[in-house]
Amino acid sequence: xxxxxxxxxxxxxxxxxxxxxxxxxxxxxxxxxxxxxxxxxxxxxxxxxxxxxxxxxxxxxxxxxxxxxxxxxxxxxxxxxxxxxxxxxxxxxxxxxxxxxxxxxxxxxxxxxxxxxxxxxxxxxxxxxxxxxxxxxxxxxxxxxxxxxxxxxxxxxxxxxxxxxxxxxxxxxxxxxxxxxxxxxxxxxxxxxxxxxxxxxxxxxxxxxxxxxxxxxxxxxxxxxxxxxxxxxxxxxxxxxxxxxxxxxxxxxxxxxxxxxxxxxxxxxxxxxxxxxxxxxxxxxxxxxxxxxxxxxxxxxxxxxxxxxxxxxxxxxxxxxxxxxxxxxxxxxxxxxxxxxxxxxxxxxxxxxxxxxxxxxxxxxxxxxxxxxxxxxxx
Length: 379
Prior knowledge:
This protein is of the alpha+beta class.
């Protein structure tokens, strides 16, 4: 609708000569907040509504204004009100359009629930034991039992010597373990932790692939060493006496990132080493042949957000975001067309269903289709 059509419609409406179709047209304009090709001024709106003002006065029995000043005051009030209404309707309509665009970004027949507590434990290469997801912490000491005191029945078959234990969280799982020395390990999805049933050497040594948070029990006489192995066989070692830190070293990530929350740790890889202080992160690129370890300051809230039940992204590319989501929702991600080059910053709850999490992503042009255990990304 252009300005001239709008003015003519207001004229007919003010004169009471609008057809039902024209009334519907005006209501449609108000509801959908369409903009005029040439914006109409407040003065012109006031002019076209002046006769309407008089009609309202007659219809309600209110006296019409005789003073030009009073008349223009009434007209200005009406004009301002109309402009405000139009503005509000436009904002609401734009918000509805954005909401509809948001909803159109994600399509699915069956949604995918978020990950949950769960893991398996393998003893001396035996069959995997499915741990109770309703009891999200297993304590390993002279016996194995959950945090509520109930025993792990299969541990009764454990031989009296030192057994090799392997804990695995699948995609869409997380779990906590208390190791024989009292250290806490919280594992994120798709991770593997290897450790002995009893520490009996000068060093307390464990191996982690994937991501885990460690709260290491203090024991100056027995340093705690965490090893992460890259695909090419090279390793990174983190040595501590007693501290809190996070290691993230997924194979598809390209680097191992160690973040220190408390205490002090030494990072060693490919002949290089450095010390970390709280709030610092060491990044070592795997499979590149480089010995450089890069140290940066980080926000611990972001780095450890997964422990609080959130994803936290800072200028993350779409493929980086989707890797995180794929592990937690246990889905395969398939790309169709060009991947958007924009980045995303923000926090998303890990308690949301997949469709809800995807709808919060703000990547220009990206659309998501959930089909079974696949998320198809297109633009």
